[in-house]
Every structure is written in C-alpha cells, then in structure tokens.
Amino acid sequence: MGVGVSHWKLAQAVSAQGQLGVVSGTALDQVLLRRLQDGDPGGHMRCALSHFPFPAMAARVRDAWFLPGGKAANAPYPRTPSHTPDGPREVQELCVVANFVEVFLAREGHANPVGINYLEKIQLPHLASMYGAMLAGVDYVLMGAGIPLKIPGALDALSRHEPASYPLAVKGAEASDAFCATFAPLDFVEGAPPALKRPRFLAIISSNTLAATMLKRASGVVDGFIVEGPIAGGHNAPPRGKLELDAAGEPVYGERDVVDLPKLRDLGVPFWLAGGYGSPEKLREALAAGAAGVQVGTPFAFCSESGLDEIHRLRVLQDARDGKAHVFTDPLASPTSFPFKVAPVEGTMSDAAIYEARPRICDLGYLREACKAPDGTVGFRCAAEPETTFVAKGGDPSESPGRKCLCNALMANIGLGQIRNGKWVERGIITAGNDVTHLARFLPPHGLLYSAADVLAILLEGVEAAEASSSTLALQP
Q: In angstroms, how far apart are the furthest CA atoms of the chain?
C-alpha cells in the first residue's frame, strides 16, 4: 500500500476482528515527525509517547518535533539528517520511537496479534525500526522486496538487547568489503532493559528458489512465507529472465514466475497467498491449496480506516463503481528498478504533465542505492534525483529517465506531502493491486464508504468456521 496507508487505525480495526492487522513500517520516522508537526490531531502520538519505556528519549522526540496547534499551512516540514550505517543518534531515536508508537496504537483495545511490514531494500533503518516495534510487543515482522537472510538473526539478537548488524547491499563493493549497519540496544536503554519477545518472521517471496534459500541460509528461524504474485500492489518482483514488455509497456510474467504450491507445501512451513486474493472465492482456493490463509491489501487500502488521503480514495472508488479503475505496472517509476504498480488518478504523479513539472529532488532518500565511493566509504545515489547529480555519483544516465520520487509521493498520498517555497506541494502516486477493478464488490448500493469490518465479512462469507479460524488475513502495506 505504500507509506502510512496501512497505519495504526487500519491495523487495529483488522486485529480487533480477530485477524492479523499489519502496519507499514516504511518511513515511520518521517510519518511521526510530520504528524507531530501538524499538531498531533487527537493527541494519539503523544499518548503513545507517554507509554514509551524510555521517558527521556520520548521527551527528546516530543520536544524536538511537536508543534502545539500545528505548523502554518504553507510552512515546510523540517528535514532530518539522512540515515547512515551507524547513526546519527537523533535519527535512530526517532526511528525507534516511531515504530513503537505505530505498533503500540495498533495493539490498543484488543488482545490479538499485530504485525509490521518492511521493505528489505530500505536497509539502513531496519535494526532501530525493529527494536522499536519489539518494544511495543509486535507479534509478526514481514519483509519483502529483497532477500532478508539476516533478519531472523537480527530479531534474535534484538530480543535479547544484544548488538545487531545488518549487511548492506553496496554497488561496487568487493568481496573483501564488509559494509553493514549496526545498532546496540543497550546504548539507548534507560534503566533495566524490559523483557522482549522475539516476533515471528514471515518472508515475502515470489519463487520456490527463494523460499528454499531462506530456510537453508537464513540466520535464524523463518516462521512462514507470504507468496506474493505479480498482480499485487506496490513493488513487484521483476520477471525472471530477460525483461520483456508487452504492447502497453508492462513487464511480461511467465511460467517461471509462478510458485509451485505443492513444492512449497512440502517445505513444511505455513504460507499465505497474496496478490488478487481479496475475495471469498480466492480465500477458499488458497485454503484448498494448503495455505494458512491470504494476505489482502487493495480492499483495505480504500476502506474508511485507511490512511490514504480521502480525495484520492474516493476518486479511485468512484472509478471502481464506474468500471474505470485500473493499474499500470510501470517498469520505470521506482528508482529501485523493481516494477511498481500505479493507479491513474487525477492530480497525482501518474499524470505525465505533473511529473514533468516537478523539480527532481531527493531529500528523503529511503530508496537510495548504496554505492562504494572512490575513498572506499559508502555513498548514496538515487535514479530519481537530478540526472547530473546521479551521473556524477557514478550512476548510469540510462537509468534516470522516467524515475519518480516515490518517497515524497507516498508521503503525499496520506496528506503529509512536503511544501516547497511556500507554494509547491508534493503530489501523490497511488498504488494498488489488480484487484482495484473489483473494489465495487465492497461498496454499499449508495455511497463510497465501507469499513475494514465490511471487507472481512465479505472475504469470510461462505468460508467454513473451522477454515476461517485457522486463516490469517494480513494487510499488505
């Protein structure tokens, strides 16, 4: 779903119904900062901060960023230093606290499990983020968009408050290089460290090979898999083999991209199916294939508890009702080079004119590529930054055209877009799965509003009670 769409309110609503609500862990430090800068409507952020186990750290974050009454409408959100392999401390603290806040709020009001989802490609915040989520008692960690072999071991270490490291994928690195991010929990603890549980880890995969690799080579226990097909929203795994595009310019997926479910079942770990499984028929099909359940994203992304800006949400739902909703799997939009699904929505970056009018700015940097600098240190570049800057850092100029700043656009999707020069407002870019064409099934006869509970009621319709009780419906952030 992107940044902050599957936020605490949506995850709370799903978990309260007995299923697995999952919050998006992407860029939560910026999400918390901007909520506080907007005056923390409803006081939810400050309430969660008051429960953070390290009061001095919570106070530093609150005092640094909270603006009573909120910032002026045309004032920009402040910038924080970028993430680096070993800090800076203020950024790590904000990351720890932000992940705690989101999970804490999602867990309020019920006793059911809550999960958090991360993108493996956004490596620098992993350790601080997971530690913060664990301080709030997160039950599941989900991760895709990469090969998270070292995450299980990191979870083991963090659960014991031990130092943890995470190897960084650095372009141009040699075999003798050892670039990694580090995090030492006891450097942040105030007083006696609280007891932590190790959350279950679910790897998001798109192939049998990756599933087998995770079980054989992961640094700790892999508790299950989410099998995500190419029609799921957000980033998709690239097709296996040479990239081919169809007449519309979308990547072509073939038989090599289909997971062999009987072979996956033989691995002996539970799995959930994702991508186009937002219907009772597909849920029954998944259970019959041996899945523990399904992961559902798009129907929840447009429900009333979603964090998506209401204007964008209602436009997509109206298009769905009118039979016009669709998505385009854009092979260029993401600076990561992963295909990214884009729903054409008026006033967003899906409009070529709006994209061309935006100055190429990379000031959030979550999707930057780490690269080895001439002095042997880790540098960063982004294919969506100004082309001259990208090329000066060693980037291939052919990788720059068509790239979009997803970091800023996804923040804008949830009403937290940056303001530039007092007048330029960042525009969003809406992502959804192919299931966007079927959203009308969740709409009432008159109106465009439906709830997370409505989605669950429809998905579980006709599913035997015994089956339903063993299935888990996980949000796809």
A: 64
Q: What is the pLDDT of residues 70-79, one digit of tens each?
A: 999 999 999 9
Concatenating the DSSP letter of every residue in 274-324 gives: ESS--SHHHHHHHHHTT-SEEEE-HHHHTSTTS-S-HHHHHHHHHHHHTT-
pLDDT tens readout for residues 259-280: 999 999 999 999 999 988 888 9
Chain-centroid distance, C-alpha 472: 19
Where do the domains of the chain lie? 8-475
pTM comes to: 0.94
Tokens standing for residue 306: 């979603």
The candidate with the shortest Cα–Cα distance to 31, out of 145, 155, 116, is 116
Contact indicator for 282, 237 with CB cutoff of 8 Å: no
Strands 293-296 and 271-274: parallel
- Of the options 3.20.20.70, 2.60.40.1230, 3.30.70.580, 1.10.510.10, the CATH number for the domain spanning 8-475: 3.20.20.70
Distance of CA 248 to the CA centre of its chain: 27
